[in-house]
């Protein structure tokens, strides 16, 4: 651990306020970068700002959701991708066991077709799908420069289905594009990195928050229509859809889930949890920082608290912010 972080580590074990004000709180520490960062930030703020005795426990989406619903623990799941578990979560809410505290990401999980910003700076038309189609020759296929290339998701991923249907609905094949399967998620991210490092052309599917979009300036292409969530769910996400229509990607629901007992038993701490939401840009930047520095969630939490006071101080009352700053 770098020496400048030692005061954080020591103080995280010695909350400034009495634990009686909040009590014992368990937080799911899930095994991906954004979730473990959030869990450690929550632990530090709840301990030092609210006097909670906050403990991190290992977590993952399905087992954590089941445990919270059936056993009432852990108290908080900071980052829960809710779409694929709607029924389980709603059942927990209906039975007054769970609460949707608020969004983990202010914009939700964000999907889209993207191009590098340096291309849009040179040709602003490329920020729109019509501009992309009119300038298809700017995106040569790496194996056949008589065609244009669109980088899609790896085979077997749900996003390959959605991107493929939207590729068809947008008429990209007619414009001269051919889909390219990158083969893996790492290869897809690597294709964005290589293009940006060399200022080459790139057009394809990606999502946010992610380290790649924290490291490189990419522009999400405007499809010219709003999101049609019903059509997206009933057709765009279905492999057997035969009549896909153009729709923007609706934001993915990424919530913070708490137990009802935590929400009612620690109302001030719950208010913080319900107030805090990370922007995709900030989270992408932090995820890139974690990769570049090989940092775990604890170190990343300290970096976030030091580097983004203008963000986290908006999540808590002024007197709580002062306690946290004193701990820092």
TrEMBL record:
The keyword Signal applies. Pfam families: OpuAC. One of its GO terms (cellular component) is ATP-binding cassette (ABC) transporter complex. It comes from the Bacteria. Keywords: Signal. Residues 1-19 form the signal peptide. InterPro entries: ABC_Gly_betaine_transp_sub-bd. Residues 24-306 form the ABC-type glycine betaine transport system substrate-binding domain. GO terms for molecular function: transmembrane transporter activity. The keyword ATP-binding does not apply. This is Glycine betaine transporter periplasmic subunit. It comes from Grimontia celer.
